[in-house]
Write a structure and sequence with these properties.
By secondary structure, the chain is an alpha+beta fold. The protein has one helix spanning 96-107, and strands at residues 16-17, 27-28, 33-34, 44-45, 50-51, 61-62, 67-69, 76-78, 82-83, 94-95. The strands form 5 sheets. The chain has a two-stranded antiparallel sheet. It has a two-stranded antiparallel sheet with strand order 3-4. Strands 5-6 form a two-stranded antiparallel ribbon.
Length: 115
C-alpha cells in the first residue's frame, strides 16, 4: 500500500524558502528579498542599488543609471537632482535642470498641418 503525501523530501527551489522542520510547502521570498539557491531556510535582502519587485525572486535587479533602491528594495528611486519613476515607468533619468529646458522647448513648438 502506498502512503499519500510527499514521497520524498525536496529542497525549496530558488526564490522560495522553508524555515521550519516538517514544512509541507515552500514560501515565496517576499518583495525586496531573494533566494538564489535551492534549499534556502531564509531569503536575503537585496544589496544597495538593487531591487526585487515581485515575490519569489531568485535574484535582485540593478537600478538604472542615476537611480538607487527605494526604502524596502522593492523598487528604485531617482538619485537626488534626477526625475522619473522606476519601475514600472521607464522614464529617462534626466537632471531636473535639463528637463526644465526640454519642457520649455517642447511647450513652445507648435504643429501646423501642411497644405
Amino acid at each position: 500500500s502506498s502512503m499519500s503525501g510527499a514521497s520524498e523530501c525536496a529542497p525549496c527551489p530558488p526564490g522560495s524558502y522553508a524555515s521550519l522542520a516538517g514544512t509541507s510547502s515552500c514560501a515565496l521570498c517576499p518583495v525586496g528579498k531573494f533566494s538564489s539557491i535551492s534549499g534556502a531556510s531564509d531569503c536575503s535582502g537585496c544589496s544597495d542599488g538593487q531591487f526585487a519587485s515581485v515575490a519569489g525572486s531568485s535574484t535582485c535587479f540593478p537600478c538604472m543609471d542615476y537611480a538607487t533602491h527605494g526604502p524596502d528594495h522593492t523598487s528604485c528611486i531617482c538619485s537626488p537632482t534626477y526625475y522619473g519613476v522606476y519601475p514600472p515607468n521607464y522614464f529617462p533619468y534626466i537632471p531636473k535642470q535639463i528637463l526644465a529646458v526640454i519642457l520649455n522647448l517642447t511647450s513652445s513648438i507648435s504643429f501646423s498641418p501642411s497644405s
